[in-house]
Amino acid sequence: MFFPNSMKIKNSDLVLEIGGGAFPYWRSDCLADVYDEASDVDLKQFGGSKLVTKGKPLFKIVDNKLPFKDNSFDYVICSHVFEHVPIDELQQLALEIMRVSKKAYIEFPRLVYDLIYNLDVHLNLMDIVDGEIICIDKKNTKLNELKLFQNYSLELRIKNLYSAEVKYENIMAVGYEFQNKIPIKIISDEKQFVDLISKSEYRNNRPSLFWLIKNKIHPKRIGKNIVGEKAISNFTELLITKP
Length: 243
What we know:
Elements: E1 15-18, E2 30-33, E3 58-60, E4 75-79, H1 90-100, E5 103-109, H2 111-117, E6 124-129, E7 132-137, H3 147-161, H4 168-172, E8 173-179, E9 184-187, H5 190-199, H6 209-214, H7 232-236
Parallel strand pairs: 1-2, 1-4, 2-3, 4-5, 7-9
Antiparallel strand pairs: 5-8, 6-7
C-alpha cells in the first residue's frame, strides 16, 4: 500500500479488507478474498509471498458476492486488487463494496507502473481522473507495441520522476477514498485512455513513505494498540448465511 495516510478510518470503525494477500493492513478487522490458505494460486497474485491473515478472520468471496449483510462495515480497504479482477467483473465488485459499507479506500498501480513491470497477473490498466476510475482491458491493448503508451511513460519519467514536487509513489500508484459510490468507466480505445490520463494532474499532497521515514514514523506503528482485535463472533453475525 502506497498511501496509508490517505485513509480516514475512525478508531471505532469496523474495517473489512478485500484481497489483503500477503500483506493485510494492520487496521483491518477481517479479510475477504476469492482465495484462502488452501487455494492453488500463482503467488504473484499476493506479491510473491503466500497468503497471510495475521490471525484475522478470512471469508471467501464466491461468485463476486461478499458474504456479508448490507452496511455491515464502516470502512472497506481494497488495495491493489482492481487490476487483478476481470474487467467485466469490476462493476459488480464496486457495487458489493458499497453495499456492505458506504466508505471505501481503493488503490491500484498507474499506467507507468505496468509499463515498467508488465506483470501478467495484472489484467487491467487503470487510473483515476476527476474522481472516476478509468480502466482498459490489458489483453486488448498493444502494451509492448503502442508508441502512445511508451511516449507517455517516458514523458512522465522525464517530467516527474526526479522532481522534488512530485513524489515517486504518486507516479507509480494512486489511492482514493470513495463514499456511497465507486464510479468506474470502462474504456476500449487506447488513445482515449491515454488522452484522459495525460490531462489529469498527479496529486502531490499526500504524506509519502519518504515523509514518514524523515519524521521517524514507521507506517505500521501509526495508531498501534489504539484499536483492539474484534471478536470473531462479531463477523459471523454479519454473514448472510451462517457457517
